[in-house]
Recover the amino acids of this structure.
């Protein structure tokens, strides 16, 4: 693929770009710093009051209560998925470690120098019942999740879990 000679819109330096970059509305600047300098300059057309007013007027029909997503929360929101809890995994990790011994339930390794993982026994990440959470070290967690192992010749062997 051949490149086409262009001149930077900010510093007028010569540079080369592929045709596809020009087709995709690119190839105007020789570097990111020139692009950002141009974008942030004071006389950038996008910062003119007439242009900003035009953008504001064109978006007035979808702002505030006119927005089709206005007030849609929880099960009304299109991205709602089966009532998942939005508590992060690290919070469940702390809860599990506060209520269970701080050692791997498979090999007995303690948390010195290694971070213990929390494994969902039934593989359902939504089921955060303490009976479903298992404290495991990284190696045992990997063995639980990926039971197939390789022998010294690189062949797959069945893992023991």
């Amino acid at each position: 693929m051949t490149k086409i000679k262009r001149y930077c819109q900010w510093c007028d330096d010569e540079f080369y770009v592929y045709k596809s970059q020009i087709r995709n509305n690119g190839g105007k600047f020789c570097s990111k710093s020139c692009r950002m300098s141009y974008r942030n300059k004071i006389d950038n057309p996008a910062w003119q009051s007439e242009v900003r007013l035009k953008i504001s007027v064109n978006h007035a029909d979808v702002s505030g209560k006119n927005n089709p997503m206005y007030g849609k929360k929880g099960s009304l929101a299109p991205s709602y998925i089966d009532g998942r809890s939005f508590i992060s995994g690290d919070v469940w990790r702390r809860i599990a470690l506060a209520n269970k011994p701080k050692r791997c339930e498979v090999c007995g390794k303690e948390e010195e120098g290694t971070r213990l993982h929390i494994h969902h026994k039934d593989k359902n990440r939504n089921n955060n019942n303490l009976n479903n959470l298992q404290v495991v070290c990284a190696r045992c967690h990997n063995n639980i999740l990926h039971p197939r192992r390789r022998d010294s010749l690189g062949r797959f062997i069945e893992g023991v879990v």
About this structure: Strands lie at 3-7, 14-18, 117-120, 133-136, 148-150, 156-158. The radius of gyration is 28 Å. The first strand starts at residue 3 and ends at 7. Helices lie at 19-23, 32-40, 49-58, 89-99, 138-145.
